[in-house]
Amino acid sequence: MASSSSSTPLLYSCIAYRTTILTEHTTSAASQTSSLASLILPKIDHRTPQKLTYTHNQNFIHYIADAPSDHPSADPSAGGLTYLVIASSSFGRRIPFGYLVEIKKQFLSRYKPEDTDFASLPPYGAADFNPKLKELMISHGTTQDGKQDAITNVQKDIDDVKGIMTENIERVLERGERIDLLVDKTDRLGIGAHDFRVRSRGLKRQMWWKNVKLMVLLGVVVVFLVYLFVGFGCGLPARANEDKGKRRVRWAIGGGGRGNGGKEMEVEMEVDNAMLGMGKAGGGDGIRKEKENGT
User: Fold this and answer.
1) What SS3 class is residue 238?
2) On the CB side of 104, how many CA atoms lie within 13 Å of its CA?
3) Cα separation, 255 vs 265, whole angstroms
4) What single string gives the DSSP state of each residue in 221-237?
5) Which pLDDT tens digits describe the chain residue by residue (295 residues)?
6) 3-state secondary structure of 3
7) Do residues 70 and 79 lie in contact, with contact meaning Cβ atoms separated by under 8 Å?
């Protein structure tokens, strides 16, 4: 790690690919600021460009983190570069960020993003840039011209940000029209979904009643079949037919016969209707009809 004893508010600076330091310089080895870089670098997210400041005791840690969107036509690894400087809090923020803009410009002019795979560089793989870091740290931290250059860089960077913000606002306004169209389509889809739910609910109710009617009909058929099976098993239809062909009659026998001593006897039995008709037609010696059931 390169170091110098020049008195400058810019205490430490490095350029890293994600967590790999490619080049660095410290102006005060006693300040122990170099160890802070290993704590900050793993926390940096390169999905979007960042310009942030951390505070640590009496020092500010400023960094610019690139993202792939900063280098659309270059090697993707250029989107993982971080430019970091640690400065005294009394030095403010404008000059340190102006310094970072300058070292980024000069580093990328030496290591072309289109031709350099920063991910393949080893630790301190760009150590030949250390003298340039030292020179810029001293000039931007101690000389009036360097400070003015830093302020100019910051102002230019602010103007670029304003242009980007204006362009982004115009895009948002254009996107607002598209959002209105999307909202209108969403409303129509919501109405269609409501109508579909109503129709599906009515169809579900119709199918439910249809199933109920079918189950009732099946229940009636099953009960009727059970009745028929039980009836045939018990012989109920045949017994009813037999009862229809018979009648219960009672006769009184006696009077003039020898064998019974002149006394009458009553006889009760079931007789077919046909036999009863024959008895009526032929008469009967000593036999008279006493009573018929149902007369």
Assistant:
1) helix
2) 26
3) 9
4) HHHHHHHHHHHHHHTHH
5) 565 555 788 999 999 999 999 999 998 765 677 788 888 999 999 999 999 988 888 889 999 999 998 888 888 899 999 999 999 888 888 888 889 999 999 999 999 999 999 999 999 999 999 999 999 998 887 766 555 655 565 565 555 544 444 445 455 555 555 555 566 667 677 777 777 888 888 888 888 888 889 999 999 988 888 888 887 777 655 555 555 555 555 555 555 555 445 555 555 555 555 555 555 545 544 444 444 444 4
6) strand
7) yes
Residue-level length of the chain? 295
**What predicted TM-score, i.e. pTM, was given to this entire model?**
0.51
Read off the tokens for 148.
């003015």
C-alpha distances (whole Å) from 139 to each of 40, 108, 131, 147, 210 are 25, 20, 12, 7, 92
- Are residues 84 and 37 in contact, defined by beta-carbon separation less than 8 angstroms? yes
HSE-CB for 230 with a 13 A CA cutoff: 6
